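Limitations
The structure tokens in this dataset are predictions for the assembled complex, not deposited experimental models. Users should treat interface geometry with appropriate caution, especially where small molecules or nucleic acid strands are included. An illustrative entry is reproduced here so readers can see what is and is not provided.
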Amino acid sequence: MRGTLAIARRELFAYLLSPVGYLVTALFLFFTSLVYFAAAPLLIGAGFSQGQPASLRLFFQIGVWVLFIIGPAISMRTISEELRLGTLEMLLTAPITETQIILGKFFGSLGFLVLMLLPTALFVFALEWYGRPDYGELLSGYLGLLLIGAAFLSSGILISTLTASQVLAYIATIFFWLILMLATMVLPYLASLAEGLSGRPDNSEALESLLSWLESAAGFLAVGNPRARVLDFVNGLIDTFNIVYFLTFTALFLAAAIRSLGARRWP
Amino acid sequence: MIVAQDLSKRFGKVLAVDSINFRIGRGRVVGFLGPNGAGKTTTIRMIAGFLAPTAGGVRVDSMEVTARPLQVRRRIGYLPESVPLYTEMRVAEYLKFRARLFGIERSRRRAAIETALVRCRLEEVRRRPIHHLSRGYRQRVGLAAALLHEPPVLILDEPTVGLDPAQIRQVRGLIRELAGRHTILLSTHILPEAERTCDEIIMIAGGRIRAQGTIEQLRASAAGEGGYVLETDSAEAERAVRSLPGVRDVQSTETDDGWRRLVLSPASGAGDLRAPIAYLAAQRGLAVRELKRQAPTLEQMFVELTAGGAQPAEGGGP
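Predicted assembly:
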């Protein structure tokens, strides 16, 4: 516990002391507020504009995408930097377990994510000033951002245990989620094609069973689409399944990262 | 305090450490001496718990490193060769982080940091960011971090490499000061360094131990392997001497004034060869103007023991 805390604290301060930390925060706030307060109201009459519901839905929707770009930038340095500087040797020879190291890194970067989201409380003040926002929905949206953020960070930590190059860690993390999202979006589309094909009189039995298998696999994958899972939160729906979904992802990534770090003792 | 038993480490096809055995007593200062790539760093990393051995094991304070890693690591202060530090932190900040990491209680933290700062003479740079410090200061910060939790065992990998002579003297002095309180294992590829700072030396090359003992013991055993110098006037002498039992090798050079200078290397266990050489010279009617036994230095022994046995196994590590 103490070791975890020591590492989490150092990690958080490392972000706060580095220009990258501020750059990342500035980018996040700039893009989300640009879209929410300026672009969307001007172009499509959505977001923060007259006659619209007092909600942050648009901000949360944008936020997910910006987190997708920025989360891996936060997590890329966690272990890769230690590998590059050789300081991992100091951590692995200290009286702490690999679990403590990974959890410390995770909570440190998650803490930074929370700090990054804090200034968006100003958005809430703005809503309160002009309207009557639904706080339940706001909380649900923030919970969604935090959960998908945790999943992004934990996957990034796992990948950063594998390489000393931060750039490589960043790109690999982005690609992982891109592939996951594409797979969970494209396959359901294929399934709809399969649906159109099935039931024709000249279909053989084998083709028919392949099509039905494809349909059920695609249905399963569609459920696994992280964007769909987080949109429920954005719309104010807190579904236990969605919470379990993101927590499972996070836990699996962290467990794998712990194993991967331990494997460094066995080159 | 530290016992290695058939300790081995293999990286792919390369056997970096080949079933090493040694035993380091409490309170001793022991030097791991060997050329670059001998397996020193790999062995040290296995003791410190950074690398897991392929076979065999290490016990520190009667505890197996792989079986009770946290207890063992709590007893070791380790300074890797590259002195990895978080350079964006200030000296005192970094030590505070290390103190937390090693579970030093809040009440004792400040005192522990002060002691380490004083012992490593870092008081005046305590507020400086580490990336502003010279290599010598960084070395001392690393050493202070290793000392912080008062470990009974200190492991220092090449602690003076890359320092200027004044800094080397400072670090050596520091190690001597620490000697009474800790068991110290340090590695070096420089013999005089080992002679000056260590009670005992373990010579290692090609992943194997070539010799070990106190400096006196090593000197004594080196003397047994000395060579002989013979200066005669005859070119025939070389062939004659070669035929002597107990002579392993002869090197012949011509001196400026036309005499032959022969340097004989004895086979091991040949005993004193001075008398047989003298008899031989008398028999063959060789004029002899010098015959002496050369007491070899530790230097020669080091060169001889480690020559040929070295293999590029160590590398920089991951």
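Some entries come with short summary sentences. For this one: Chain A touches chain B at residues 2-3, 5-7, 9-10, 14, 17-18, 83, 85-97, 264-267 (CB under 8 Å).
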